[in-house]
Structures are given as C-alpha cells and as structure tokens.
Amino acid sequence: MATRRTIITCAITGAIHTPTMSDALPLTPEQIVDQAVDAAKAGAAILHLHARDPQTGAPSIDPGLFEQIVPEIQSRCDAVINISTGGSLTSSIAQRIAPALVLQPEMCSLNMGSLNFSFHPLARRYESWKHDWEQAYVAGSEANIFRNTFADIREASEALKPHGIRFEHECYDVGHLYNLKFCMDEGQFEAPVFLQFVMGILGGIGAEIENLMVMKATADRLFRDGYRWSVLGAGNAQMRLATVAAALGGNVRVGLEDSLFIRRGELARTNAQQVAKVRSLIEGLDLAVASPDDARETLALRDAAA
C-alpha cells in the first residue's frame, strides 16, 4: 500500500503582518526568495506568495515585484508556486489577479466568499511603529469588507483557467464551501478541488477543532471524493490544527503570513523554522511529507506528468 504523504504549504509573508510586528518578516524580493527557498528545503512542497514594497514593507500586488521573486525561486528549487489573488482588501479582482496572469504559476489562491476580514485588534499591541503607514493600515481593517463576489470568482476563473492554473480555494466559513459547490455546478471548476480551510481570522470561522470537523463533514457531503483539503490555523492555532489535520488525512499550511510565532510567546526566526516544526509533528504521527512532485500528482497540477 502506498504511503499517504502530507503536503506542507508555506505562506511566506502575506498581507496582514507589518514590519513592526516581527523582524523576521521578509519584505524585500531577496528576503522573500531566500525564505521561500529555505522553506522548500525544510519540506514545504507549495510556496504561497505575496509581495511587499521593498522600501516600506507595505503589501503590494505590483506584478513587477512578483517578477523579481517567482523566477528566482524557480531557479533555486522545484516547489510548486502558488501566487495569491488576495493581497489587498481594497483592490479590484482584476488588479488582484494581475500578478498571476503575468507569471502564470501552477496554482493561485482564490477566496470563495466575501467577509469582514479584520485584524484591527493588533493595532492595540504596539505603542510605536517602524513606518507611518502601519498603524492606520492595521486599525483601518475594522472598516473593510474583503470582497469576493460570485462575479469576482467567475472573473478570476475565466482569466486564469485557460493558462492551466489550478486553485487553492480558501474557505473562511462553511458557506464558502457551498459557494464553491455552486461554482462547480456552473462549470467554473473541476474536481479534484483543493480546499484550504482558513480558520481563526476575525470575520471567519473560529479555530476550534469542532469547527474543523464541521468543515470537513460539509466538504465530504458536497464534494465526496472530488476534493483534497488543508488547514490554515491563524495565530496560536497554527500547529494545533495542523497536527489534527494531518492525523485526519488532510494537509497543512504554515508560514509567517498566518502566524509570527514558533510557540506561545516566542517569535519564529524564519518560515523554515515553522516548516521544520510541522514536519516533525507530521513525522511524529508516522506520516510521510509530500515532495513537490507528490503534490503535483495529488492536486492534478499541469506539471504532474512532466
């Protein structure tokens, strides 16, 4: 019997945390590349990528920055590249998918519904900030709706699918699973779909194990054997939910986008440190970690037979 292999995704920098919150957060293209390659060496099969303004550290969806990041990573490792189509709470879907259209990676993330995506409580933790933009950016998320309408989802699908790009369908609540099922019934996506249960973001489903079981049971009912799944636990739920997901037959996502910590009260030094920790937890369950080619085969990516 073939050994089941657990896919580790590493989300390298994201668009939530700011430079004040951790010196380990990669900001320049060079830092993002180096941390991504090290995460791949530590065991990450998929690299989930955002970009940052190298001068200020602010999140950016400038395709030119991704052009400095993606080819360099590809020249140094064989990990699956997954470009975010999130990246901004205020930009249009056309703006958010622009980097993926230029770079045409094997995968993109795609959010499956609108929500009150907020991280404004973080603004209370800091008395001073490294950059002028940070406090207003964090506090201002209280007023934002992260828009992902059915029209937005269709626009992203129609623009990216012709390039052979498949999706990490980010589901922040149970209703997002039903949204995806509707879109599949409309012919926008084909099985096997790759679900990322995003848990613990303010505005989405809480990071409790009971909620994970509800998400999985709902996916089982809607998609039967036509899906693969992974779990993202935000903040201090990261390793706990990853361990439960691996034990249940799922896959895992870690990275400084999702948590700045390696354990309670201790900031992670790098993304690779988080990957190494979750790998040890997976292997401690007597499970194997997937290689990039394992992930390509499992998720039916375009390079699976290359």
From TrEMBL:
Pfam families: BKACE. One of its GO terms (molecular function) is 3-keto-5-aminohexanoate cleavage activity. Transmembrane segments: none annotated. Its cofactor is Zn(2+). Keywords: Metal-binding, Transferase, Zinc. InterPro entries: Aldolase_TIM (IPR013785), BKACE (IPR008567). This is 3-keto-5-aminohexanoate cleavage protein. It comes from Paracoccus thiocyanatus.
